[in-house]
Each structure stands twice: as C-alpha cells, then as structure tokens.
Write a structure and sequence with these properties.
Oligomer: single chain
Low-confidence stretches: 1-41
Mean pLDDT: 76
Distance between the termini: 85 Å
Number of strands: 4
Strand order of the largest sheet: 1-4
Helix content: 55-70%
Number of helices: 3
C-alpha cells in the first residue's frame, strides 16, 4: 500500500488520482493545519512483479532438478533442451516485469512529469530490466545454436555409423 501524507492550510475540495483511482477530499476550515493520510492500493503492480519473480524461481529450480542427474548438461540435447525451456520461461517473466514497469512509468510521467524523481527512478528500473530481457534473449540464441550444432553432430555421427555398418555388410557379402 502507498501512503500519501499532505498538510493543508486552506479549505478547499481537491481531487486526488493515485494509480488511476479518483478520490474527492473536502479539506477543513481555513487556518487549521490538517494532515491527511490515505492509502492507495498498488497490489496490482506488486502482484504482477511477484508473480514474474516466482515464475523465474520456479523455472530455475526445475532446471536445477532436471540437470542435477546429468554429468554435463551442456553436452547433451536433453540438457540443452531443459536449459532452453528454463530460459524461455525466464525471458517471458522478465518481459512481463518490464511491461509492468513501463506501464507504471507512463502513469507516473503523466501525473508527476517525466522529470519527477519517481519517473526517473522508474526509468532506471526500466533500463536495468531491459538489460535482463536482452541477456535472456542472447542466452536463448546461444543455447539454440549450441543445440543445433549438437543435433547436427549427432546426426552426422549416426550417418557415419550407418555407413560403416553398410560397408561392413557389403564386405561380408563379398
């Protein structure tokens, strides 16, 4: 929850918009200093971020469980496939977090201005989150290439074995 505290010295009615929710507040008589506190619900923002973080943790733990039985997961198609599943889930969750930050930034920039401290703090978070998304994309690309190379090598090795078997059969038939 977000708590906003404001001190007032004049009587007037104000409209407050906090995260898209409108509230009308009637202030007390003039010359009476009043502190107004109200809470705004920011659970949607936190919930989306927490869900994405949980998805990342789950994907990482699933990969750890899948790869724990492999001597070197990076040299097997099963290991690389498990890593790619993990990275795809992580990428989607990181992208979701980025989308949530961008939405929050747009709202804060509209209400407080792009040069406000809150907007600038969100801009920094957006840049850092974009770096995480980019990293996941690079890793996915690298592991896809590695998996294709491994599958190609396995395919050519299988072809060589078949050729050797056929040659042996032909020699035995001769």
């Amino acid at each position: 929850k977000l708590i906003l505290t404001v001190d007032f010295l004049r009587k007037e009615k104000i409209d407050c918009i906090v995260l898209g929710r409108m509230s009308n507040i009637l202030l007390p008589d003039e010359n009476i200093k009043t502190t107004l506190q109200f809470q705004a619900d920011i659970t949607d923002f936190k919930t989306a971020t927490q869900e994405a973080t949980r998805a990342i943790k789950l994907a990482n733990s699933e990969f750890a469980a899948a790869s724990s039985g492999m001597d070197d997961w990076a040299t097997s198609t099963d290991g690389l496939s498990a890593k790619l599943r993990q990275l795809t889930t992580v990428h989607a969750a990181e992208q979701r977090k980025l989308d949530v930050l961008k939405t929050a930034y747009e709202e804060v920039a509209r209400e407080q201005g792009e040069n406000s401290t809150a907007a600038q703090d969100l801009a920094v978070k957006i840049n850092n989150q974009q770096a995480k998304v980019n990293k996941a994309e690079r890793e996915i690309s690298a592991y896809e290439t590695k998996l294709q190379e491994l599958e190609s090598t396995a395919g050519s090795a299988a072809g060589d074995i078949k050729k050797t078997g056929d040659a042996a059969k032909d020699a035995g038939d001769a």
